[in-house]
Amino acid sequence: MHSYSLIAPAKINLYLEIIGDRPDGYHELAMILQSIALADQIDVRSNSNRTIHVHCNHPQVPTDKSNLAYRAAELMAKEFPEAFARYGGVDISINKQIPVAAGLAGGSTNAAAVLIGIDLLWKLGLTQSELEGLGARLGSDVPFCISGGTAIGTGRGEQLSPLPNLNNIYIVLAKYRSLEVSTAWAYKTYRQQFSNSYIKNTNDLVARANAVHSGAIVKAIFARDTGKIAEKLHNDLERVVLPAYPQVLQLREVFANQQGVLGTMMSGSGPTVFALFESEQQAEQVKLYVTEALTDGDLELFVTRTISHGIQVTSSV
Ligand code: ATP
């Protein structure tokens, strides 16, 4: 019997632009994705009964086939039936620290960890690009979560171009525990309201997606100009989520008025709002201030930082 423990970091979006529609029904996106230190721990263990089991310490996370980690294991079993037969099934344990349905890719990073864990358990020796290909079949954010760090994501977000490491920018994340925003709702509502401004011509669509590579925020990342990065944060989905969720708008406004905040933005489809800081001390001070100013037991705040990696294996038995 073998098992692996893996760290599965969350991500934030430093940039999210909706460019147009795709023939597959998804949106054509240009994103900049950034791994953060806030992470779940995933344990994967071979069992001898050819079944997949998921256990999670968080009551909101399903443990059936709707769990993305379960679906990652199921995909591996389907793709590698001989290894599945030889090594048996897998027990997956998720120690959830990443807020759920928060725009932080919690499910996607769990799935990425399971792909890597099973690759090791079954001694498959898959390349990063093979793992990313499998990940893309599970969700648009899964390929990024595999190698993590800082990257441009185009297409559905799964076509990745790595950017230079952007370690140790400090972050405060704020999320109301009981507030969830459905990613599908956010994109559908955006389409209803703004599809008249979508780029329709395929060549123009590709050109627009490519333009992000030479955009101001990418230049700021290459220069590690934290102030400029913070100034150029952007998320089109704020246009639909902020008007519909006044609590999220309020968090944005409270952060924007704090000393030491370099920039603030909603991550992904929300409702998590993040703020960037030069130092951990400034981040801790603002976390304290916001906790006291809003006095809401439903609000959770985390101090974390940018990191340069995705899934990491911490131990094997
Ligand atoms: P993204 O940023 O990729 O859109 P998210 O952070 O907004 O993702 P998740 O935390 O992945 O959202 O949760 C979205 C939904 O997926 C939840 O409602 C949850 O029930 C379900 N889910 C399935 N598997 C998982 C998992 N392993 N961890 C968390 N949620 C999961």
Q: Would you summarize the structure shown here?
A:
The chain has 317 residues and is an alpha+beta fold.
Describe the structure.
There is one protein chain. The protein is α+β, with helices and mostly antiparallel strands and 317 residues long. The protein contains twelve helices and twelve strands. It is globular, with a radius of gyration of 19 Å. Bound molecules: adenosine-5'-triphosphate.
- Count of helical stretches: 12
Topology as H/E string?
EEEHHEHHHEEEHHHHEHHEEHEE
Instruction: Report the portion of residues in β strands.
Output: 25-35%
Return the average pLDDT rounded to an integer: 95
Backbone shape: globular
The radius of gyration computed from the alpha-carbon positions, rounded to a whole number of angstroms, is: 19 Å
Distance between the termini: 8 Å
Structural class call reads alpha+beta
Helices, strands, pairings?
Layout: E1 3-21, E2 27-46, E3 52-56, H1 68-79, H2 81-87, E4 90-95, H3 106-121, H4 128-136, H5 142-147, E5 150-155, E6 159-162, E7 170-176, H6 183-194, H7 202-211, H8 216-222, H9 226-231, E8 234-235, H10 238-244, H11 246-256, E9 263-266, E10 273-277, H12 280-294, E11 299-305, E12 312-316
Parallel strand pairs: 1-8, 3-4
Antiparallel strand pairs: 1-2, 1-12, 2-4, 2-5, 5-6, 7-10, 7-11, 9-10
Helix pairs in contact: 1-2, 1-3, 10-11
This protein binds adenosine-5'-triphosphate.
Residues 61-62, 66-69, 94, 100-108, 110, 141, 183, 268-269 line the site of adenosine-5'-triphosphate.
Keywords, please?
317 residues, alpha+beta, Ribosomal Protein S5, domain 2, Alpha-Beta Plaits, 2 domains, 8-stranded mixed β-sheet, 4-stranded antiparallel β-sheet, 12 helices, globular, binds adenosine-5'-triphosphate
